[in-house]
């Protein structure tokens, strides 16, 4: 019940979503940087071949799934903290 708490008691929870969003965005940027490094390690001929395209698609799936898992973890942390308070 939010009405039972004053602003001074609950101000930390107001910044929790902002912190989690920033944390997730930094995690996504780190994943993009890692994807770019792996992509640049492949030479142009390898990227244009069918096997290279399959590897690129696997890399995309890997980093998108990591980002989604990070988002789910942030949401779970938010829910757990709100239930604990």
UniProtKB/TrEMBL annotation:
Which UniProt keywords are listed?
A: Membrane, Transmembrane, Transmembrane helix
Regions crossing the membrane: 12-29, 63-81
Name of the protein this chain belongs to: DUF3899 domain-containing protein
